[in-house]
Predict the structure.
Amino acid sequence: MRLAGKVAIISGAASGMGAATARRFGKEGANVVVADMLEHEGKKVANDIVAANGAATFMTLDVTSEADWKRVVDDTVALYGKLDILVNNAGISGSAVSDLLDTEAWDRLLAVNGRGVFLGTKHAILAMKKSGGGSIVNLSSISGNTGQAITHMGYNASKGAVRTLTKSTAVQFGADGIRANSVHPGLMPPMRTSGATADPAVRAKMLQGVPLRRAGEVDEVANAILFLASDEASYITGAELWVDGGYLAT
Ligand code: NAD
């Protein structure tokens, strides 16, 4: 098993790619903390992992709250003894915002997708330093590398921030044995908070820019996260891995 004995927190693990990653980590031998605001869905993911002979527990987390992050990291270390892996996956979409110049949307997007990743990184680093290192995987997006016509710029700005925040983490904490990498999904199943990008007509148009001519699947992103989180990627840090069917190569 590729994560035997590892302890991992995954934010936003009640749904989508976070849930797929939690299930995959469970199969690979990790102790998985399923962290999310969605208690019912999150508990189901954790229960499924346990039912499949894995180890998992659900913890309530609002990634914008520093007190929540401190509690989740402290409780994880109390329960499993250490923290090896953090996947900063929780996020909200910018494609349901009708006014592309809405200021409140900017604040909300940067709070969840930007501040949330910083806070998770901060508290994970404090714990990982004590156990000699760890691996942080941050969910950015193709939107972290490009502008987009129909998505609020706060989404792209937040995902761009995640991209470079990841590199700063790698540079500043490499000497502590902490690796940090970003994963950039492309056209995937819509997020719970998606608006325009969930529209089949919009998705069909977006597909024309994807060399593989299909949307990605959540397990294809989970595979990339698993690799970067594991010791197989022991000399990879500060990297960005595009899981986008070739979108950013065009
Ligand atoms: P999703 O909407 O299915 O899941 C996101 C999860 O984050 C949900 O469980 C939600 O409850 C949780 N979450 C939202 N706000 C939170 C908060 N404040 N605190 C704690 N949890 C919170 O979305 P997904 O498609 O699985 O997306 C996962 C990540 O991948 C996100 O960061 C997203 O921006 C990124 N991404 C998604 C796509 C896509 O097309 N789906 C493409 C590129 C990148």
